[in-house]
Design goal:
Elements: E1 5-9, H1 19-28, E2 32-34, H2 43-48, E3 53-57, H3 67-87, E4 91-94, H4 114-134, E5 137-141, H5 157-167, E6 172-177, H6 178-184, H7 188-195, E7 199-204, H8 220-229, E8 235-238, H9 246-256
Parallel strand pairs: 1-2, 1-8, 2-3, 3-4, 4-5, 5-6, 6-7, 7-8
Length: 263
């Protein structure tokens, strides 16, 4: 059995189908649905799918740590909250800086200065206030800089966790992406134990290749057992490319996070 709610990113599976059909296929298989840039989507068509949306990107442009970029992030976050209300989506995801179509930072920074840390914390505090007024939660996602997102500030799980702790609001939580954490930091079960009180969602993919669980080095059933031991009953989202047939990939994901029945 599974004590977790399982979701899958429609950006990364059923890629041969129109986006709204991807959403339907994921929902028909019993998963919640995650999406990224809502500005390119037919929102009316998405609402008609009847899918449960778990998470979406919470901004269009902007950065955390400089005044102009922070202002743009907060302005576009307000627009994103309006879309989240239409889709009844509870969580909106943000990153240390805006990312381009290739996943690269729009404002790269190899080192975050103390001033950047302070400004990022202030920006996230204002973002949490927006979330509180709207009844939604923003999540700050950790990323890896070695493979997918070089030059992204505040990328590590340690960095994102420190910022979420500094803000101290239930409307800002950590999107703990274990794929990125494995590449950047490893020691996933200890990381989950440390971070879980501040987690809003967990995302997964295997390493290397960013494909479904069972294709790489991470033993996700052990992670699932640790989450269960710690009492986590929230969302685990698959943000991975299918290694082959997408239905099979989603079933492998489900199997990895289905706990054995008690004796």
């Amino acid at each position: 059995m599974s004590r977790f709610r399982l979701a899958a990113s429609a950006e990364m599976v059923f890629l041969d189908l129109p986006f709204e059909e991807r959403v339907r296929r994921i929902a028909d298989l019993g998963f919640e649905v995650e999406l990224w840039d809502w500005t390119t989507k037919d929102l009316d068509a998405l609402t008609r799918t009847g899918a449960t949306f778990s998470s979406m990107t919470g901004y269009v442009r902007g950065t955390l740590a400089d005044p102009d970029g922070a202002g743009e992030l907060l302005r576009t976050a307000e627009r994103s909250l309006q879309v989240a209300e239409r889709l009844d989506c509870p969580r909106l995801n943000v990153h240390g800086t805006g990312l381009d179509a290739e996943g690269l930072p729009v404002v790269a920074s190899e080192v975050a200065t103390p001033a950047m840390w302070l400004h990022a914390a202030r920006t996230l505090t204002r973002l949490a206030e927006l979330g509180e007024r709207a009844g939604r939660v923003f999540t700050l996602e950790n990323l890896n800089t070695a493979v997918d997102h070089p030059g992204t500030p505040f990328a590590s799980a340690a960095d994102t966790l420190a910022l979420v702790e500094a803000v101290g609001s239930p409307h800002l939580r950590l999107n703990l992406d274990l794929y990125h954490a494995q590449i950047g930091e490893g020691n996933l079960i200890q990381l989950v134990e440390r971070a879980l009180p501040l987690v809003g969602e967990i995302q997964v993919a295997d390493v290397p290749g960013r494909r479904e669980p069972g294709t790489g080095e991470i033993h996700y059933p052990a992670v699932a057992a640790a989450l269960d031991r710690l009492g986590y009953t929230g969302v685990v989202g698959l943000e991975a490319w299918a290694s082959g047939d997408p239905v099979q990939a989603l079933e492998r994901f489900r199997a990895a996070f289905t706990l054995p029945a008690p004796p």
